[in-house]
Amino acid sequence: MAKLSRRSFLRGSLQGAMVGMGLPLLNCFLNDSGKAMAATGQRIPVRFGTWIWGCGHIPELWVPEQTGREYVMPAHLQPIERYREKLALLSGFDVKLDGVPNKPHVTGCFGLRTGIPVPDRQVKAPTFDVLIADAIADTRFRSVEVCSAGIQRSYSYRDAGSPNPSETSPLALYQRLFGEGFQNPNNATFTPDPNYMVHKSVLSAVQEERQALMRAVGAEDRQRLDEYFTSVRELEQKLALQLQPPAPVQNFLLPNSPNEAAVDSEISNVLENHRIMAGLLARALQCNQTKVFNVLFSDTASNLRRPGVSSTHHTLTHEEPVDPKLGHQREVAWFAQQSMLAWRDFLDAIDGIPEGDGTLLDNCLVLAHSDCSIAKSHAVEGIPAMIAGAAGGRIRTGFHLAGNADPITRIGLTVQQAMGLPVASWGGLSMETNRTITELLV
Amino acid sequence: MNKTFIFILSLCAPLTWADAAIQNGTLGFVVSEFAYALGPDAEETGACPDGLARNLQEIYILESGAKRRQNESEAKFEKRLQAAAKALGTAENGQDLCQNPEAGSPDPYFKTVQGSGFVVEGIDLDGKNSPEDFNDQAGSNGVDNQFYRTVGCSRSFQSTGQSNGFKIEMLAGSWGIVFELSNVDDIYNDEHVDVTISANADPIQLSAARVPLAFATYAKDQSADFRGSTTGRIVAGVLTTDPVDVRFHSVVNSMKLERPLLDARLQASFSDDGSLTGILAGYTPVEALYDVQYGYRNAMAVDGQLAPLALRQGSANGAAHVLGHTCHGVYHALYKNADARPDPQTGKFTAISTQYRFSAIPAFIVDIETESANSGLKQSREYGSDY
């Protein structure tokens, strides 16, 4: 028998179509360190994601007093204490408005994600997650967007005015990820979907005509056509993936379909739906359905609410008086803490999957952030952020770094560089920076 | 040797912040703190015997049968509350009452301050002691602050509330105020100084700790509408200016608004640290005050066009809900408490005494078309014309 490789599969035909049978991921495919495929030296893929929670934080309950490795986690970070070695806390980084009117809960979030503050939802797209997806995504889904707060909202934009839509129901997310079109990477047999084969052959014909047309037109038209055909190429790529047996995946278990759940903004439902969606997303990352994701735990103007209460987390930030004894808003603080509990749930899901010599989280770079620092004043200075995961060894964690009012684009620049994008500077005007957060990079 | 050393010290010692700040008789300041000058909380004064103002849902819930019904789901109850509030916020002719507050009647649930026998921040604007005037710190009656009377029973204007924190947009650089004093001979006593009160055309400069920086340079707004020139005097370190109409910018929910102040005057003290702290007081046309603080009827988008109706209407109704008032309630209360600029035909007052407390720090004020980061954003081709 020929030498085995990760790409080895048994070839044959089925109803006239060529098919292959994949092999499970065997230890002999990995190198001694367990970090790369032995035959090719190719590293286990690094995934990128963002995790957003709305309405900021209570600074005295979130920002550690110390910087560096020996910091004490304040009360609201206690739920994630066990992940301190896999986290880099980033406080004190600002969105610089340059006089742009602050659209509450919007300007800060997009300032962080695009490097340019805007006074409305006319986003100076793309957001950095899209730039990263364009560079690394060779998967079935370019990215997966999820919102657990019961509303169709996303802060991932390819073009202004057109957010990448999010899944809001665990069941819908399951069906999208593992329903029609999903090929279990560890199945003993692989059968190409005849529909994809038909589409593929149609596109092949289009491809010949396209190439002929490209040769016939001038440079300017060729450029226009090239832009137009980009979307066609993306479709072809997706089809090509569907017509190949997926690479086998270590320890992959197809998750069960979740039950139909209440999809609303009541906090216990949101937390439960978020837990389920985090688990589904983790499995999708594990079996390479996507390499990029954006999770919206709560909208930036957080609509979370307690059962039987109409006031939401957001409205409470404006309605609730400051408790004179505590020095902050008691109910708002409770919701802020729930956000960190949810973040712990998310980390549990990602870190709970073994991969190589570590976990899935070790091969991820997840940037968690909010839209503002102090929600009642909509302050975009000191927006809380943190990075989880080692990005396959590219990112250093385990410390708290104070930004000292540096532009928050330093974070966006650094994560893009960590994900391999050849970007030297990023952001606009006062937010333009070429200052990588070197403490983060290995 | 020793004599020489002593001589050098005597030359250096008298330098003060004023020596550094005064340039050819000119002193500049940028406002670093700004808020309405108000009185104590309702709980302290007892001036709101009937409680605080209510929003539309809180008014509806007082009606018989309005409370949550047995077997009514939480979601249905919430929808019923919202529908009732929308109905209450709509005039008989179908108009939205935040955009058309004159279409509604005075709201009996919009409570205002009763009585006046207590200390309220501010100064005497009209030189008269009227029954509605409040006391000053020295115990004298005469403080004209009818805006406080109007909002003093609103929960959002209590010290733990949200409405008096609008300086956040100033500190974010969306608007600002600068003062320029010229012909200054003596910072402690000068019988005549010229004073310009202007909108700041540049974003305020902050330190890494987000504290406004002294001695930064700012340009006055180039529009004559946004600058007022007057005269004043300094007595024992207290600057008092003569009345002049001024106008500032404001930003709410990314919409641009204007904050005019008629017959505005400064009464402020110079401190040893170089700051100028005191009161900026005058009268605000009721219609303009309603617009900048409550209704946003004339709010502009960043492209210079009237902001979309949905944004203006939604922002005003949303603010009324979370801050605890009704639009038509506050509108009629502002007119009821107005105390200046009588309408020539009706005799009805059209402006209300409004006072702001402020702190300002030394700055260099220039009168040029600004080249700040803000203007760069406006002019940058890369960012298009939507700024």
Tell me what the structure shows.
The complex is a heterodimer of chains A (442) and B (387). Chain A is of the alpha/beta class and 442 residues long. Chain A folds into 3 domains: 1-43, no CATH class; 46-183 and 254-431, Alkaline Phosphatase, subunit A, CATH 3.40.720; 194-241. Chain A contains 10 helices and 13 strands. A 7-stranded mixed beta sheet of chain A has the order 5-8-3-11-12-4-13, with helices on both faces. In chain A, strands 1-2 form a two-stranded antiparallel sheet. Chain A starts with 8 loop residues before the first strand and ends in a 24-residue tail after the last helix. Chain B has one domain. Chain B is 24% helix and 27% strand. Chain B has helices spanning 2-12, 17-21, 42-45, 56-60, 74-88, 146-151, 167-171, 286-295, 309-323, 327-337, 373-379, and strands at residues 27-36, 134-135, 141-143, 177-182, 190-199, 216-219, 227-235, 238-241, 244-252, 255-270, 276-285, 340-342, 349-366. Residues 1-14 and 377-387 of chain B have low confidence and may be disordered. Chain B has an 8-stranded antiparallel beta barrel. Chain B has a two-stranded antiparallel ribbon with strand order 2-3. The N and C termini of chain B lie far apart (65 Å). The A-B interface holds A 94, 96-104, 106-107, 116, 119-120, 122, 124, 264, 307-308, 310, 315, 318-319, 321-322, 324, 376-382, 404-405, 428-430 and B 57, 74-75, 77-78, 81, 155-156, 158, 160-162, 165, 168-169, 172-174, 202-203, 206-210, 251, 253-256, 301-302, 321-324, 372-374, 376-377, 380, 382-383, 386-387.
